[in-house]
Amino acid sequence: xxxxxxxxxxxxxxxxxxxxxxxxxxxxxxxxxxxxxxxxxxxxxxxxxxxxxxxxxxxxxxxxxxxxxxxxxxxxxxxxxxxxxxxxxxxxxxxxxxxxxxxxxxxxxxxxxxxxxxxxxxxxxxxxxxxxxxxxxxxxxxxxxxxxxxxxxxxxxxxxxxxxxxxxxxxxxxxxxxxxxxxxxxxxxxxxxxxxxxxxxxxxxxxxxxxxxxxxxxxxxxxxxxxxxxxxxxxxxxxxxxxxxxxxxxxxxxxxxxxxxxxxxxxxxxxxxxxxxxxxxxxxxxxxxxxxxxxxxxxxxxxxxxxxxxxxxxxxx
Length: 317
Ligand SMILES: [Zn+2]
Ligand SMILES: [Zn+2]
Fold this sequence. Notes:
The protein is an alpha/beta fold and about 325 residues long. It has helices at about 20-35, 45-50, 50-55, 80-90, 135-145, 215, 250-260, 280-295, and strands spanning about 1-5, 65-70, 70-75, 100, 125-130, 160-165, 170-175, 175-180, 190-195, 200-205, 230-235, 265-270, 305-310, 315.
């Protein structure tokens, strides 16, 4: 499976302010000079020598994730990232006319891109929506209604199908085995365990991870057991969790704990706060590094591959 992240932000799309951009550019230029480079010919070498997140940050768009195997695709959530995904398909894969979208829940950051998924307006395109929540059809229809949006649902050119899926029940969706599990989030929200050819992708956004042990999670532990790769909410810091308890978002500490208990080898941390600038996220990454060094031996996660997600990132499982 190849998993591409078209949007990894949480709550609201986020862009640096002009002042933050200026500060970021100043820092990059300072690093260029301090690295001993002088010529414009060195710019590309310098830029390529740094991680892309150092130069470009972590992205602006809210949740949209594409899971691909060969020519089979499914998509999770319709945050603002789905606009970029849809435009990419229109440009590079216009022959693809079947789209399978799994909905975790209907908070605004996970649906706001759907009216801008251009396939809705093209004849011959078919969009399949899958959700546990019974009101999925009502929610999607509501997005395409005036005065919220100028084109009504009845006038959309594509064909739309709604499919109900059940928690803890494995369903075949476009060649993938998909099982929903309940996440810790206000308003029903489901994580997805996606399996293909013996590989397991666990998607756990939005998730506060109040429950971590098998005893606490019960059947929901099935989301994490034997997962090769986990994508999980780490919007906040543990120190903030007294104030933000019940908001439905997790921390890197909880993500590391889950990887330790369920023996997960790779994790990507996501749902970055919209208020965080590039340097704010980098500060969080540095804190996570310190914490990881502190606990990795005792938690037996020394070999865990972990990072903070960025828009456009692709991971192979
Ligand atoms: Zn969210
Ligand atoms: Zn949410």
